[in-house]
Write a structure and sequence with these properties.
The protein is α/β, with parallel strands linked by helices and about 290 residues long. It is built from nine helices and ten strands.
Length: about 290
């Protein structure tokens, strides 16, 4: 068989699906759009079939493309695993790490300290931001690794999932909720995907949600809820015995995942080493099945 599956072309195919199109795939891989298109065309020529639909309103991949995608992901995963296991050179380089406030409670500082002692030639610069902000920074190449949360249905195949948790509507047990009036809502700031989902889903709760407070801090939101200011959305690890989890008529929130997502430097040995260190050591509570 003369056809060959080029690793770069398989990376391009996977990136197109993971990011939602050629433009974002090019940004993710730090290549031009024409380079991505060229890789896909060469792969199609070698295999003798079309992989992308190229039709408005259709899915990204043809049936052949979907079939190849499964193989591509397995090949790329084995490639990265082999590099990680067989690499003997000391880790070197600079890593820009973005984390959410929520992940800092999982011992990230301790892990980074241990990583720095083990790999003194790797410089890690860390900043804290909201998950949506980190996603944008990853796509633009402004950070190399993001440790964050997303809704479970929005995770990518290349993500490293650390934990899964349910999301709950909660209020203080002492707070009397009047469903005949607009529901007071304690929200995280505008860049929080919890808030964006709540404001859309809350339209089904006549007469709707009324934001009474915004706060970027988990501690601040919890304090406001326990003080009886209103209801909010919290993932399981932050729900306390003083809070009441509410069911219908509140719409059921989708579950979330804590994950590590890498950007354009995903194949850097230093980035792979940091992701491995966090995955192995991060402290996350068990999630009931």
């Amino acid at each position: 068989m003369s056809a060959r599956l080029e690793l770069g072309a398989l990376q391009a195919l996977a990136a197109i699906v993971e990011t939602g199109g050629i433009t974002r795939a090019a940004q993710s891989l730090a290549l031009s759009q024409s380079a991505i298109s060229h890789k896909i065309r060469r792969l199609e020529t070698a295999l003798g079939c079309e992989l992308l639909t190229r039709r408005s309103g259709a899915g990204l991949l043809t049936p052949e493309g979907e079939k190849l995608l499964g193989y591509a992901r397995r090949i790329l995963a084995l490639h990265d695993e082999a590099l990680s296991c067989l690499g003997t050179e000391p880790l070197r380089g600079k890593i820009r790490l973005g984390v959410t406030e929520d992940t800092t409670s999982g011992g990230v500082a301790r892990i980074l300290g241990r990583f720095a002692r083990r790999h003194p030639d790797v410089s890690v610069r860390t900043h804290v931001g909201q998950s949506l902000t980190l996603e944008g920074q990853l796509d633009r190449g402004e950070i190399d690794v993001g440790f964050m949360q997303v809704f479970e249905h929005r995770q990518r195949v290349s993500d490293t999932v650390v934990a899964r948790e349910p999301l709950h509507w909660v209020k203080s047990r002492d707070f009397e909720l009047d469903m005949s009036r607009s529901i007071p809502f304690v929200a995280f700031d505008d860049d929080c995907f919890y808030r964006q989902w709540a404001m859309e889903a809350g339209q089904s709760l006549s007469p709707g949600l009324n934001t009474v407070m915004t706060c970027a801090s988990v501690a601040g939101v919890k304090s406001a809820v326990l003080s009886g200011l209103g209801v909010t959305l919290l993932n399981r690890r932050h729900v306390t015995p003083e809070m009441e989890v509410m069911q219908a008529p509140f719409p059921e929130p989708p579950p979330i995942v804590y994950l590590l997502r890498t950007g354009r430097q995903r194949h850097s040995s230093a980035v792979r080493g940091l992701v491995g260190a966090i995955t192995e050591e991060v402290e996350t509570p068990a999630v009931p099945g």
